[in-house]
Amino acid sequence: MQDTSKQYFTITDFDDRGRLKTQLINIKSFDVFRLEVEYDTRNRIKVQKLMIGRSQYQDKISYNSDGHVLEVIGSNNWKYVYDENGNVISIMKDKEKISLGYDSGDRVVQYGDVEFASYDNRGFVVRRGEQKYRYNPRGQLIHAFEREKFQTWYFYDDRGRLISWNDDKGNVTQYFYSNPNTPNLVTHVHFPKTSKTFRCLYDARHVIISIETPEQRFYVGTDQNGSPLALFDINGNIIKEIRRTPFGNVALDTNPDFYLPVDFHGGILDPNTKLLYINNRLYDPVVGQWMTPAWERLSTKLNSPTDVFIYRYMNNDPINKNIVIDYMTDMESWLKAYGFNTENIMGSEYIGRMIYQPKATIQSKQLAPEFGVISGLECIANKIKEKFSSLDFVPKPLLKVEPKTRNLLPRVSYRRSVFGEGVLISRMDDRALISVVEGVNGVMQDVVTSVFNSSFFLNVHFSIHDQDVFYFVKDNVLKIRDDLDELRRLGGLFNVSTHEITDHGNNAPVKELRLHNPDAVVIIKYGADPQQETHKILRHAHKRAVERAWEIEKQLVAAGFQGRGEWTEEEKEELISHGDVDGYEGIDIHSIHKYPQLADDPGNVAFQRDSKRKRRKSGARKRRNHRHLVTS
């Protein structure tokens, strides 16, 4: 590959197995960068040779029996010692040794002789050295600061990609992803303060090769994982050279004033915190672990037993990032081995990939196969397209062949459904519709069908104290006795209790049946209006959300953050001492009547000054009634 002026070209050579072998950058007839890699019998890099300008480096890498990086010998000598769980407990560079300490959840809490990291109840790193962090409900970092050094705020798009950050000094950096075929690659970086824009160019492997500024173009030399190692100008002069530890921490930067947005493994470097955004997750290269756990990925991408260590980065092997084991079992896999991709040949395939369609899918082959819903017309179209794109002359056998898979999800985390197997409760026109599988759990099916079928199934569902809570309404109050007799047939599966709820302003008390088990609570209300009950439940849920939001705000302000509100110093003291600020109320950001699933979410609460109330002048506290804001 070369530029139009033929002053620059790069050659990438692969071995007979399609693995990267050598990479060369030539500028004005001089070789300025060269990378050579050798592999062992387990498809891992064992030798890495590097030439930057006139300097040459060579590193030999060894691994332990678990596949973790054990030792790097060469221009930089690194050695890692692991415990029985695979955690790095000591790092040795030449004669220097650094010890790491872990808690019971295999999370780093100590680095050297100092307490390094602290975690909140969600498992997010909220303190790292002298830096403190705050996250939004999606687990994304939104505020970081270090006292008397920096404060930074972060912003994301609907896909979870970092789109901008700004600090307390007025600096703003914006990231753009303009290539729909590679939606996670940064193509432009804009600096509004200086009115400058950087453009990032990538090769066919999605590895950065060039950065264009308003003044000139720079060429980037990277390692096999897309980590920039050197930056050259158009004359071949070295502008910036970077040396890192195997886990990505910068050990040498010859030009730190030149901000290179793409960093270790192609991630985005945060210049203030020195953290990295890799695949929309925050990574700490100092200790080599993720900043936040991703439990939802564990249930869909479980490929090996070590994936249960959700903070560990690449199973402690950051050298071999792109190892993909493909077994040649069909024509399509063989074509990919020779560089052909039938999906790219079919125009509708790559056009369809440009359209963002968020969905949750199970991507691991070791987990249970997922059966989605597809229309008959789409199924016919897919079959015709499959036949048209097939290059095989041998007809496909009618006998269906599938790889044997086991459902491994229960071994990771398992919670049985509320009424066991073979029972499905659906909502049709606000009514409960019971569907059962014959021959499975017969007594439970009879009881659930008798009690819940055709009752009002309220569109509100919460999780309180790790229990799922569901609400049903029946208009006939006399059915409570019959339902109670039916539910007693379930024996010890549920604790059944009756309650009589008196609502102020309503003379007629509402009778309730409550079913409890360790995983769920099912509440059946009798003689009530479904719409009124929904509003009442949402009102109580909103009150819980406001109380929880004040608790979180108090914790944030006490930790040194500004919090959600623009509090004065006097209001901060009042918040820390009393738990709230007089004259302010909690309101919904999004209407809970339009989005009932947000009713008890403290992240959906904003604090607003109540103009109708005056601030108290005495120290006496009065109980505040939180006004509920209803929007249409």
Tell me what the structure shows:
- By secondary structure, this protein is of the alpha+beta class.
- It folds into three domains: 8-316, no CATH class; 423-528, 2,3-Dihydroxybiphenyl 1,2-Dioxygenase, domain 1; 535-609.
- Helix content is 16%, strand content 34%.
- The strands form six sheets. It has a 14-stranded antiparallel sheet, with no helix packed on it.
- A hairpin with a 5-residue loop joins strand 7 and strand 8.
- Pfam families: TEN_YD-shell, Tox-GHH.
The overall pLDDT, averaged over residues, is 87
Radius of gyration in whole Å, from Cα? 30 Å
Assembly level: single chain
Query: What fraction of residues sit in β-strands?
Result: 25-35%
- Largest sheet, strands/sense/barrel: 14 strands, antiparallel
Instruction: State the separation between the terminal residues, measured CA to CA.
Output: 57 Å
- Tally of distinct domains: 3
Shape: globular
Give the helix/strand class: alpha+beta
Number of helices: 10
Number of strands: 38
Fraction of residues in H or I helices: 10-25%
**Uncertain parts:** 617-632
What are its keywords?
632 residues; alpha+beta; 2,3-Dihydroxybiphenyl 1,2-Dioxygenase, domain 1; 3 domains; 14-stranded antiparallel beta sheet; 11-stranded antiparallel beta sheet; 10 helices; 16% helix; 34% strand; disordered C terminus
How do you describe this structure in short?
With 632 residues, the chain is α+β, with helices and mostly antiparallel strands.
Secondary-structure blueprint of this entry?
Layout: E1 8-14, E2 20-27, E3 30-39, E4 45-52, E5 55-63, E6 69-74, E7 78-82, E8 88-93, E9 96-102, E10 108-111, E11 114-115, E12 117-119, E13 125-128, E14 131-135, E15 141-146, E16 150-156, E17 162-167, E18 172-176, E19 188-191, E20 196-202, E21 208-212, E22 217-222, E23 228-232, E24 238-244, E25 250-253, E26 268-269, E27 276-278, E28 281-284, E29 289-290, H1 295-298, H2 331-337, H3 342-345, H4 347-353, H5 376-389, H6 409-412, E30 423-428, E31 431-436, H7 442-452, E32 456-464, E33 467-474, H8 479-487, E34 495-501, E35 510-516, E36 520-526, H9 530-558, H10 569-578, E37 584-588, E38 605-609
Parallel strand pairs: 33-36
Antiparallel strand pairs: 1-2, 2-3, 3-4, 4-5, 5-6, 6-7, 7-8, 8-9, 9-10, 10-11, 12-13, 13-14, 14-15, 15-16, 16-17, 17-18, 18-19, 19-20, 20-21, 21-22, 22-23, 23-24, 24-25, 26-27, 27-28, 28-29, 30-31, 32-33, 34-35, 35-36, 37-38
